Amino acid sequence: MGSTDRLARLGAAVLLVALALGLIASASPAPAGAAEDPSSDAPAVATSEPDDVVIDDDEPEGDPGRVSVIKAEGLIDPVLASFIQRSVEQGERAGVIAVVIQLDSAGSVVSAERLNELARTVREASVPVAVWVGPSGSHALGGAAQLAGAARRVGIAPGARLGKTGTLEVDDALLSPEFLAAAGRLEGGTVNEEQARDLGIMADERAAVIGEFIIGIDGVETKVVEVDGQQMQEPVSIPVFSSLPVQDQLFHTVASPAAAYLLLLIGLSLIVFELYTAGVGVAGLVGAGCLVLAAYGLAVLPVRPVGLALLVLAVFGFTVDVQTGVPRFWSAVGGVALIAGSILLFDGLSLSWITLLVGIGGTALAMLAGMPAMVRTRFSTPTIGREWMIGEQGEAVSSVDPDGVVRIRGALWRARTNRATPIGVDDAVRVVEVQGLLLEVEPLEGAAVDYRDKRRPED
User: Fold this and answer.
1) Angle (nearest 5°) at CA 409 between 405 and 413
2) How many CB atoms are closer than 10 A to CB 282?
3) Number of neighbouring beta carbons within 10 Å of residue 226
4) How many other CB atoms sit within 10 Å of the CB of residue 220?
5) What interhelical angle do 353-365 and 329-344 show, nearest 10?
6) What CATH topology corresponds to 38-247?
């Protein structure tokens, strides 16, 4: 293999790696440092953001105390559930004023027993545990909404929603009376800030930003400050912000539906790509890594086996037609299986249309256009000086009428013939012209006379 081929393979592998990392990054929640400033549109509060909750147990005399604020974004999976429970327990040992969970979650994928255990930790903690659904645009649905119902205080930012609990999995004894009273309303619908306040689920105080929510918690010391001529309250107690550590964030991200789905398709596609390259390269290693991460995510999420089987069938179908360079029966099977598998993959969870567009469109484009071109580059003759191919003989792999695929010296080529002389499968052909990657061929016997030859003067 020449240096040009090696560089082409390396470039393609690097591009695929970058695509995989980019898709993972786009599907992952924003890092802790990118969170909305808790002081925006509200009195400023002192903050710090360690990777995990680490609070000094020894408070100096006169210390106004601390409020532990933990960010919980994404589905409540085993990683996030352990982080919340660990943070509450550390807050209890440290003697903080309260633990506040900043919640933005579409639901829970842990078992009912694990969700009850987490709700019990929140409800029965020795320090008050509060839940703030925010910032604007956030939501707490399903098991996440039930977890909020176990908190001693709930706040909802303007533009945020809470509800769609479905059948309650958390024991009634662990839920607040107000939440239980509104269970019928919340089972199939959601409520906003005003509606939650009317139902008694939310405190009366405004909670547009987390700073305002913290000020309303019992035990938090405040002082009055003047901002732009207006007197406002500012917390003296120190909020300490924390989020998932980096290693936990990785597993939490790959356990999200979008990331697990895209990693699966990327991994399968890269493995197919590696099958048509010489040796084990970067693409194969990255593909294997994507499949390992996808396997973890799919093991955590509720997956329908039929959806997973359809996605594997889709990649297999595309692979069958890769070498022909022309979409045929198996490509159609692969396309249908890809769409159906993408829709049916998760049970009770849905993928956004952007994720579906990237997954279906990207896989189809790679299999129907990228892979055949790569195979021709890998197994075909050099791209420079193809004039020698004129006059070469071969055989038709598929019917050429007027387009099809032929084999010349063991390499597959897209071919075209005169409409008056269709070529059947396995018929012998002769190359009469080369047009880039397309060959013009004719049957060895019974070829129609080219109109260009008719105009040539006879010798």
Assistant:
1) 25
2) 17
3) 8
4) 21
5) 160
6) 2-enoyl-CoA Hydratase; Chain A, domain 1 (3.90.226)
Structure tokens at 401: 């009428």
Cα separation, 446 vs 433, in Å, equals 18
CATH code of the region 386-454: 2.40.50.140
Q: Tens of pLDDT along 205-215?
A: 788 889 889 99
Consecutive H or E run containing 131: strand 129-133
CB of 243 closer than 8 Å to CB of 71: yes
CATH 3.90.226.10 boundaries in the chain: 38-247
Tell me the pLDDT tens digit for each residue of 384-425.
456 777 888 999 988 888 888 888 887 788 888 876 788 888
Q: Where in the chain is the domain with CATH 2.40.50.140?
A: 386-454
Q: How far apart are CA 281 and CA 6, in angstroms?
A: 10
Answering whether pTM is above 0.85, one says no
Say how far apart CA 266 and CA 310 lie, in whole Å.
15
Distance CA 363, CA 316 (A): 12
